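Field reference: sequence -> structure
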Amino acid sequence: MTNPIRRALAALLTLTCLGALSAQAATGVQGPVPPAFQNRLMVGLFEEAGQNWMRDSDVPWDARYRYFTKGWADNWGYGARDGAWATSFFTETKAQGFVPVVTYYQLFGEPGGGEQQTLAKLKNATTMRAYFEDVKLLLQRAKAYGGPVVVHVEPDAVGFLQFQTNSNSHAAAAIAASGMPELAGLPDTVAGWSLAFLQLRKAVGANNVVLGLHISAWASGKDIAFNSLTDPLQPEVDKVVAFINPAGLAANATGSTYDVLVGDPLDRDADFYRLTQGADHTWDMSDTASITSRSYNRYAEWLRLFNQTTGKRWVLWQIPLGNSNHLNVNNSGGARQGYKDNRTEYFFGASGDAHRRKFANVGVIALMYGAGAGGQSSYQNDLATDGQPYLKKRAGAFLQAGGLSLPAAGTTLPPPGGGTPDAGTPPVDAGTPPTDGGVDGGTDGGTRPDAGTMDGGTGSSDAGTSSDPSKYGFESSTQGWSASGAALSPVSTSTSKAYAGTRSLAVTFNGTSGKGTVAVANAAVPAGRTVTFRFWLPTGSKLLGVQPYALEGAAANWRWTGTWFAVGSLKAGAWNTVTVKLPSGSTTPLYQLGVEFQTSGTWKGTAYLDAVTW
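Structure field:
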């Protein structure tokens, strides 16, 4: 079937079966992507502190999440109340190459009852003072850590509060009345509770923290995903948005809003509900399923309407790990144990590319997998029919190939295999090289190309001379560049290779798989410039991708700009050109300029950087 016919048929199916999804193409996805997400569809997993399955999987996962419950602040009585437990999680996660994600689930553990007493707890000034002291401590530890941290605020709490207040976000609560000095200017309302996270982030100065507000699919009073299937979605979205707008989505007294929305497609494997409760929680995977059916199309439309109405992107969290080859038994750790589901197969099965693009086009920027309760399927034993771990193998191939760049605001990604993106849409695959293939120059070891001219200046055509006009040429020192991440040893200058002059920066991989970065602080790159790096790719390496990037500081809300180059697009045993173009309004100096690497396997070797110019 030709591309025009396929696109025409797809358009017809959209009109007849997907209803309002046609508006998606006209308006495009809305809202910015927080820099912590690096403008690509992130894939993460749940993992407890001290565990190393993610690190040892040889998959370049993006994020690692875990719960912070009541007692975390003093390690459940085994330490001082200094938040060291959080610091350990942040630093351990960064060392393994992942972004730390905190699911802050403390409110239900506060004294006074469980979920049904959520509103009552908010009215108790003593409870709220202790609660917000812990929130402040978390943000202080995150600020001291310095790297990106995503804080997912209280799963389902907003939904329970909407029920318990009859959708009145101005219902009384003890926020300023808690006595926290930082909260003195906030309203003593349910909305004020949600605003307190924004206010404390500002008061602490934790600008590296991304705040996500959890939106339950049943918060409007109708379970749009499983039960109220014939009800129109927009009125249910509007009801929830009206409740949460004063709570941190619309302009408010803190001067900021929540960065992302967080949703959970299901908290347990679908067949767990079928077998133990007689409830059908399986979604139809068909791309032609009606939005009035129990289907991914209906859920995607709900996400889209929220994105269009609020201008916020989505993180999908705690996605079940079951697949059709599980045994439908309580998971005791054995191979294939757990319950069946199709949520891994939808995003990473045969049609995974198209489904990932569909959900990116409705605002999804991250897929976070993890069991929401004991006895469910796990990524350690989710074996497929080929005997291989389902998510590890398939998500691993997706991430190792460079992943998927996210659509810019007002645009959509094209369908796989054809179609034209809207103007301004970034490259479809994060690892796609620039038009010149991302490669520049010779193939003989250590010799730069014959042409003696580089972007930003004229250099010597003889790699054996000391002439190097680059901003960073590493002729006499590392010029402030340093390495981080478990995969890398400290950097040094070296005469083994040189693109210009006689030296370059040696980047040594120590045999640990995962991610690593080499970077410098305070690079004075003017706004909108393209930064060019010369990168020597050694033969036989286990490198998967290279990402030059720029990270701006607090004045630009920690904006991240980066471009992934899949190693398959580069030449081994040669100097390659990789670039990153800064936004037209970028700030200077940069907080950080650098290159991120992804590697798999226990490979040891050295790559080189040289001639960094703009």
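Note: The chain has a mean pLDDT of 87.
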